[in-house]
Amino acid sequence: MGKINQVRKLTDNAYLNLYNVKATSIHNTPVDYFVASRAKSEKEMKLSTGENPPDGVIIYSLYGEKKDKVVLIRQYRYPIGTYAYEFPAGLVEKGEDYHDSAVRELYEETGLTLTPLKVDEAYQKPYFTSVGMSDESCAAVYGYASGTVSTDAQEASEEIQVVLADREEVKRILREERVSIMCAYMLMHFLKDEKPFDFLEVLK
Predict the structure, then answer these.
(1) How many Cα atoms occupy the beta-carbon half-sphere of 119 within 13 Å?
(2) Number of structural domains in the chain
(3) Are 52 and 28 in contact (CB under 8 A)?
(4) Same structural domain for residues 105 and 80?
(5) CA distance 59 to 144
(6) Which of 25, 45, 140, 168 qualifies as a FRET site for 35, CA 20 to 30 Å off?
(7) pLDDT tens digit string along 115-132?
(8) 203 within domain boundaries
(9) GO molecular function, one example (predicted)?
(10) Residues in Cβ contact with 46 at an 8 Å cutoff, skipping those fewer than 6 apart
(11) Same domain, 64 and 152
């Protein structure tokens, strides 16, 4: 296993920062690595604490009387200079349970009310989002959405369209649109499952 020798914070932003990691690889060669992190300091980084609290939450929710539509957002993303389809998501606030974060974030982004499901921990624990570049991890929350779509609670800096997609629209999105990989994999489950959230029963 490699050895981390030094970590230095390079930026001082509110939500995401760049860190330089100096290390020695398992082959005894020097490593000069850059990591994006939600941590406020070197001591709070996951490479320092060894812990993995969720930085954010991703919400997979179904909508409609027949639970036959999935709640998506189509959001403008600056790194790619265009729109991408994603699940509603957001950061977990300090001291906040991530299930509560999911309820709050779904309302803020879509105007809908989330009723979370109780699922096996293996399906909702924090997993890393892009571990080659960042120590960020997100927990998944599954549930049913209700109410009327509204963008009134969105932040002024956000450019988000709410999409309630049935299976035919999901097929089109996967074929034709830019989609985040986490969202894409879940949409494949949505297409395959005969009943809503069928895949969540596997570990029981």
Answers:
(1) 21
(2) 2
(3) no
(4) yes
(5) 10
(6) 140
(7) 999 999 999 999 999 999
(8) no
(9) hydrolase activity
(10) 37, 39, 52, 135, 137
(11) yes
